[in-house]
């Protein structure tokens, strides 16, 4: 049985973490952008916020992280936790990591089998509220090659993964964050400063060309577009544009990545 009051408080804090007011239980969010734009760092940021104890401003809930890119860096997560704890100790770090589960997948078929096998875990862990998948697009080119000229065969496994993910989210009242990488990028010619862009996010701030299966496209409720600032004076600054797909509202934020993790500007 799920503690809705606890989840309501957790989602409220996650909203604050993302500076986003439209995040709810059973939401599915896609982090989209080129490599090196801060998507995985933002996932570390969310993970740390969730597994930190309440006494340290965390949510004290469990997180399942599925790594398909083999980019996950446990030492990086530990470093972020150490910076956020008022008094870091091995015991507290171990306690935080006890709420964190990491799974690796090497193919879309293995991802599908993993999702099937993890259902019992959601049943036995009512505090497991956040599911992270980094990234959903990792096997796109392999699946495309294996499927030959048939689009249905190319997308078959990812379609099944998407449908099962949606069922898990709805049945176990999860929030799902999944990253996808942009394949093609349009040239950037924006010279606008942070304050102006923050106040007036535009469709031009978004470079999105859908290429994953329709099953995934249709289940995503919020899409967050990541980019890196081209201005040499702000080369350590990143931006994200949050789009609520139903209302088509946009909101832009800037952040930097330091040793302690993500910091919003």
UniProtKB/TrEMBL annotation:
Xref: Pfam families: Rad51
Q: Which InterPro entries match?
A: P-loop_NTPase, Rad51_C, RecA_ATP-bd, XRCC2
Q: What is this protein called?
A: DNA repair protein XRCC2 isoform X3
Q: Which gene encodes it?
A: XRCC2
Query: Which parts of the chain span the membrane according to its record?
Result: none
GO terms for MF: ATP binding; ATP-dependent DNA damage sensor activity; four-way junction DNA binding
Under CDD domains, the record lists: XRCC2
The record places domain RecA family profile at: 1-182
**GO cellular component annotations, sorted alphabetically?**
centrosome; Rad51B-Rad51C-Rad51D-XRCC2 complex; replication fork
């Amino acid at each position: 049985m799920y503690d809705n009051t606890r989840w309501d408080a957790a989602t409220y804090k996650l909203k604050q973490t993302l500076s986003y007011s439209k995040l709810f239980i059973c939401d599915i969010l896609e982090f989209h952008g080129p490599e090196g734009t801060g998507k995985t760092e933002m996932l570390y940021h969310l993970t740390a916020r969730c597994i930190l104890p309440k006494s340290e401003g965390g949510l004290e809930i469990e997180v399942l992280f599925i790594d398909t890119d083999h980019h996950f860096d446990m030492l990086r997560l530990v470093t972020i936790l150490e910076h956020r704890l008022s008094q870091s100790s091995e015991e507290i770090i171990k306690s935080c990591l006890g709420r964190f589960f990491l799974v690796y997948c090497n193919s879309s078929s293995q991802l599908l089998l993993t999702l099937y096998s993890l259902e019992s875990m959601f049943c036995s862990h009512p505090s497991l509220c956040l599911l992270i998948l980094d990234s959903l697009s990792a096997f796109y080119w392999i699946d495309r090659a294996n499927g030959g000229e048939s689009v249905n065969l190319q997308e078959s496994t990812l379609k099944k993964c998407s449908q099962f993910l949606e069922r898990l989210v709805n049945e176990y009242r999860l929030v799902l964050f999944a990253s996808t990488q942009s394949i093609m990028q349009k040239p950037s010619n924006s010279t606008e400063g942070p304050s102006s862009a923050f106040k007036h996010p535009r469709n031009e701030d978004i470079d999105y060309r859908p290429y994953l299966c329709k099953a995934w496209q249709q289940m995503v409720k919020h899409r967050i577009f990541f980019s890196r600032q081209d201005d040499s004076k702000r080369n350590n600054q990143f931006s994200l544009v949050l789009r609520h797909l139903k209302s088509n509202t946009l909101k832009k934020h800037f952040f930097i990545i330091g040793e302690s993790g993500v910091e919003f500007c």
